[in-house]
Amino acid sequence: MIITLTANPSLDRTVDLGAPLTPGGVHRIGAESTQPGGKGINVALGVHRAGLPVLAVLPAAPSDPLLALLEAVGLPHRSCAVAGRVRTNLTVLSSPEITTKLNEPGATLSAAEVTALQELLLASVTAGDSVMLSGSLAPGLPVDTYVRLIESLHGVGARVGVDTSDAPLTALAAALPGTAPDFLKPNAEELGQIVGTDGTLLEQQAAAGELTGVRDAALELHRQGVGAVLVTLGAAGGLLATDDAAWFSPSPAGPVVSTVGAGDSATAGYLIARERGEGPGERLAHALAYGTAAVGLPGTTIPRPDQVRPDADRVIRL
Ligand SMILES: O=P(O)(O)OC[C@H]1O[C@](O)(CO)[C@@H](O)[C@@H]1O
């Protein structure tokens, strides 16, 4: 089973201005919607829609509107009751095709709530499960939460993936090679944060077709014990470092509607292919196909398998 932890879930509110966003201006909202959000929830939705067993673990008060949204989409979940409300993250869609994201920090968890959340996750996992630790940490969670969870989850025989940024990512980098996840999903910026290089430069190089910097950084993380490193490079494609080698594929072409959730969909695609026993090329192709499909869907909509076209023929070994 695949289990995701969303340590800082969200209600994702998307508003479409249908016009340019002007700082200081007054804008009228054309269309709006609210969807369940947070990286682990998005990954779990992708896995669930592909028909694989999944469980999303998260903190939320029993009456929180997020839980009603999860019921409505039918996502199997277990929540740890907390006092604070789930944050609302705002996505502003403006023309020409610009996505602006405003993320709240999230309510602070008490020490007892932190313990209860970690215990709920550990109680949900058995040997052989794959656990994905995704997104930012709610205030109150120690910055090395993911490092400690990798150690505990490895102790029960689970495989562990991580997708995070900023301070929790730096803590993860500091714990290498002693404690390493089995799977890591950085974008170019985050890859730069981990290996201590300029992520923007890595991204620009990849966009220009120069992949050496991204490949070397990803392989270095793999050498430090990370089982597989999937680097998402937006429109430029994605790179996978695993089994002492690296693979690259450009992104399939497709319309851009909302980039929110594209990275999480890529993670879901990767995990779905891995769960089915596919090799690195097919896993990368699934990740990119899921990411591209998500970009073509509104708000934080996670694709169904019939919306995804993996193409392993585009994958090259570097
Ligand atoms: O936990 P973070 O880094 O604030 O990201 C949460 C946001 O990212 C997403 O998971 C998309 O990747 C949204 O659903 C959510 O609003």
TrEMBL record:
InterPro entries: Carboh/pur_kinase_PfkB_CS, PfkB_dom, Ribo/fructo_kinase, Ribokinase-like, Tagatose/fructose_Pkinase. The lineage of its organism: Bacteria, Bacillati, Actinomycetota, Actinomycetes, Micrococcales. Residues 23-305 form the Carbohydrate kinase PfkB domain. It comes from Brachybacterium avium. Gene3D superfamilies: 3.40.1190.20. Keywords: ATP-binding, Kinase, Nucleotide-binding, Transferase. It comes from the Bacteria. One of its GO terms (cellular component) is cytosol. PANTHER family: 1-PHOSPHOFRUCTOKINASE, 1-PHOSPHOFRUCTOKINASE-RELATED. GO terms for molecular function: ATP binding; phosphofructokinase activity. The keyword Protein transport does not apply. Belongs to the carbohydrate kinase PfkB family. This is Phosphofructokinase.
